[in-house]
């Protein structure tokens, strides 16, 4: 899969993912009001907002897992649909549900995903990803023997062991300890440098400040504010800077 590290992250580029006037209703209730959003290669947009504000709904619609009630989602010129093999080959999703095989080890899960996606040297690649996700010691464990943080690491590893141009992540920081969260931020920065586009649902403004070019804050299914991360999260950034200088004293 093409990953272009040469293009600057901030330059105006053709969107890889384009949502136009997308809304989602359940019955009579519109839980996501019309939202438009675009994401270019090597760019990260973070979706923030309180519980129930519509972040996961927006991510599922963006991933083609859920059809919008109105509006369109287009991935690189293709109508977004998770069943389309062109989409499955290039879009990796870590959603809000855990799905795994109880009788396959951590390594076997990763091998399964890598082989299914036609990765060459799958075994070597799996070992690298296990190492990068700090799962090497748990490689032969079954899912039932994993801690919740290790399970989260496995779900993320499944997305990283396969080719991808677009990475859609729903609260990947959940259940991770502070070290693992820092590791996650480094990993996402490496993805962006590799040209992967990242749409990230998170409750951690620190993570958004570290990795996101832009943020969209949702409230009751509507965009409350959006824009450049440091501008929208200026208050959080000031608090973080103040805490940093207090700690340094
Ligand atoms: N399948 C569904 N049927 C009916 N209502 C739903 C369904 N899925 C989500 N909702 C409702 O849509 C609203 C938005 O939910 P969503 O999961 O997108 O919020 P969220 O911002 O991701 O929340 P959280 O931070 O708690 O994960 C909520 O009020 C939720 O109850």
From TrEMBL:
InterPro entries: AAA+_ATPase (IPR003593), ABC_transporter-like_ATP-bd (IPR003439), ABC_transporter-like_CS (IPR017871), ABC_Transporter_VariousFunc (IPR051782), P-loop_NTPase (IPR027417)
Pfam families tied to this protein: ABC_tran (PF00005)
Domain ABC transporter positions: 17-245
Molecular function GO terms recorded: ATP binding
Cited PROSITE patterns: ABC_TRANSPORTER_1, ABC_TRANSPORTER_2
Keywords attached to this entry: ATP-binding, Nucleotide-binding, Transport
Top-rank taxon: Bacteria
Protein name: ABC transporter ATP-binding protein
Organism: Kitasatospora purpeofusca
